Amino acid sequence: MSNTIPLLEPDPYTVALDEVAALDTQIARLSAVRAKRVTEAARQLHRQAPTDTSTAGPVWSTARVERIELVTELALLTRRTEHRTATLVDTSIALVSSLPLTLHALSAGHMSWEHAEVIAKHADGLEGDALDTYDARLAALATEVNPRQLEKKARHEVELAQPSTAVERAEKAAGTRRIYVDPAADGMASLTLFAPAPEIHAITDRAVRLAAGLRASGDPRSMGHLKIDVLTDVLLNGEPSIPGATRGIRGRVHVMVPAMTLLGVGEEAAILRGYGPIDPATAAQLTAEATSWRRILTDPITGRILNTDPRDYRPTKAMIDHARLVHPECVFPGCTVPSEQADMDHTEDHAYGGDTIPENLAPLSQAHHKVKHHTRWQFVQNGDDTLTATSPAGHVYTIPPEGRMRPAPQALINATTTATARKATTEEEDLADCPF
Fold first, then answer.
1. Domain boundaries, the chain
2. What residue stretches are annotated with the DUF222 domain (predicted)?
């Protein structure tokens, strides 16, 4: 008689964890392949040698045209922001051309793409032996720490390699400071302030101390909520100390509220410019505190904003307002810059006979306005407030009018049509016996 030992079933939790780790290894390997493909795309575009297509103003170098065309093209194909795409391009080219050991570790699945981004970012400016030493050191460290820990080690290694350039690198980094908004669910959004570390830490410290003072005085809100509330209050109501800055400026928001919703009998949501639909209570509060109103007429069947302004050589204020209402954001595919901060562009260039009429105007951010005129991107107005954009590689994108309101319900249109027909019939009957 033999005794058999039953085999233990593997723990499903452990199996799931192992599968996640295995998938991460595959993702890392594919990321290395992607880096090579991105670099090859850059090389092929370089062989095409695209030139500046503008008709006036400073001419862009071929290198700049190549860079912009590649980033804008990839951003739309991969559904990334242009900022993230630029990071993808820079990291890929750095790995393939300058960081062979890091690329090898990524190909083997020993580090993640996030690790590679950190290494490539801090390698900028290193050359020769300093670059080789940095590559070897960071490729080894990346297998032991997470990307955030690696960030600190990368900065340390760079300082050891070239301490004399620290000030130059800090000045270059300060030139990338920016602010941007990311919409979130349920009427919320994120504000990102990317600025030099001393200023960011000082802002955080001030928010903490202001919140602590309110908390000590008996305010029932949590410290987390107090920090957000006091910082919001300072940003909205504080005055700038920068010489030359205009004082007394307050933040503005634009809300489109359907008349029936405003009267409390409609269900269509109000639209917060640059965000989207907002809840009725928030809309009611904003409209109650509104400092100005403007009536906008829309086509009840299509929802298209109507316009009756005359044509003129230069865009009138009404034309500009109309274009911004139809397109609340820059019309370049994927761009979210508010139209109030954008240039008013002639879709068909004025230099080539484009008229200054509402049907030929659309907002383009300053950056994308230059992209349109200096690269091979092409835009066409379709006559229904939509635009068609064609990329240098031939990909076609349709830009809808985000400012269009929802059409009136079909039942209301039918009822209105029926009432109009009955009225016309009644008038004909009343005039039937008229001798004239």
1. 12-174, 178-237, 255-288, 296-425
2. 19-302
